[in-house]
Specification:
Elements: H1 3-12, H2 28-53, H3 62-108, E1 121-125, E2 128-133, H4 141-172, H5 179-224, E3 229-232, H6 236-262, H7 268-314
Helix pairs in contact: 2-3, 3-4, 3-5, 4-5, 5-6, 5-7, 6-7
């Protein structure tokens, strides 16, 4: 394996497994994702218990509510990290599936008969417009961006949320209602929401990496079978997914900046009345983008299953 390939695998935390990898072995990502999610759930439960315990004494327990909110955000982030780790395992299994189908499809392929087979151009399919080529397509710029961005985002998300938790603990030790209490609360809340947005963006980029792997893997399977390679053109749902992710992440960053610079100002009360809602809208936008990514993955899988059926039944 080349030095650049090793560096790429290290940077992305997960790489394409060896062709000889045992598909029957238990995935360590599967187990790790479950463990991480359980740890996150325990953190959320601890924060909720602390918050419930302070309900009868709200006036004297604002500090408890401050750090329990920070712990809640950290628990949510850890659960999302569990989702990300599980998706890493899916990437590994996807490439195992590609290598297995490449071996089996050659023997299952039917003998092509009839009209001349097209090796270039475009065609309509039940799943959208597709391009025809002789070789498997390379990754598009959007796929390369996804493959290299999800790792730093998954690392930065928990770090930023953890910083928000530390700030909320410091806030809990300040006098309730003081300027320091207000300022620390605003920065802690902004940090927590920004960390959640970074984590959701990282998950979005992992889904983009899965789409990239499906595109390349599907092309490799067809090329290995000696048939024209049909590849779905990037659907509108993918572009909408990218747009929603960008809007959500930029919105979370803007909300964090505004929370920091407006706290302590004379009109902070008016800003704080709507900024938290705006930040939740940013998170909702990111989640909506994830739905579109999953929708697109479903379409690509449907197209590839249909393509394999055609290769087996009609040989082209």
């Amino acid at each position: 394996m080349s030095t650049s390939s090793l560096a790429e695998r290290s940077y992305q935390l997960v790489g394409r497994p060896s062709v000889s990898a045992d598909w029957r072995s238990r995935s360590r990502y599967h187990t790790a994702g479950l463990v991480v999610a359980v740890i996150g759930l325990m953190a959320v439960m601890a924060a909720s218990i602390a918050a419930f315990a302070s309900v009868k004494h709200l006036g004297s327990h604002q500090g408890t509510l401050a750090w329990s909110l920070g712990l809640n955000f950290l628990g949510f982030n850890i659960i999302k990290l569990g989702i990300g780790v599980t998706l890493m395992g899916i990437i590994i299994r996807l490439w195992m599936r590609v290598d297995s189908v490449k071996v089996a499809l050659v023997d299952l392929k039917a003998s092509a008969e009839g009209e001349q087979v097209r090796t270039s151009g475009e065609l309509d399919t039940p799943y959208g417009r597709a391009e025809i080529s002789e070789q498997a397509p390379g990754p598009l710029w959007i796929h390369k961006l996804a493959e290299y961005m999800w790792t730093p985002l998954l690392v930065m998300g928990p770090m930023v949320v953890a910083a928000g938790l530390v700030l909320s603990i410091v806030q809990a030790n300040q006098t309730v209602g003081s300027a320091d209490f207000q300022h620390l609360g605003a920065v802690a809340q902004g940090s927590s929401i920004l960390g959640e947005a970074l984590m959701l963006s990282g998950i979005s980029f992992i889904l983009g990496t899965i789409l990239s792997s499906l595109r390349r893997g599907g092309g490799e399977v067809q090329e290995s079978a000696g048939v024209p390679v049909q590849t779905l053109k990037v659907p509108y749902t993918v572009w909408a997914f990218v747009g929603l992710m960008a809007v959500g992440l930029m919105g979370a960053i803007a909300t964090f900046v505004l929370l920091v610079i407006t706290t302590g100002s004379g009109n902070y009360a008016s800003w704080s009345a709507w900024l938290p809602q705006a930040s939740l809208f940013s998170l909702g936008t990111l989640l909506a983008g994830i739905v579109l990514a999953l929708y697109s993955i479903g379409d690509v899988l449907g197209f590839q299953f249909s393509r394999i059926r055609d290769i087996i039944t009609i040989g082209r």
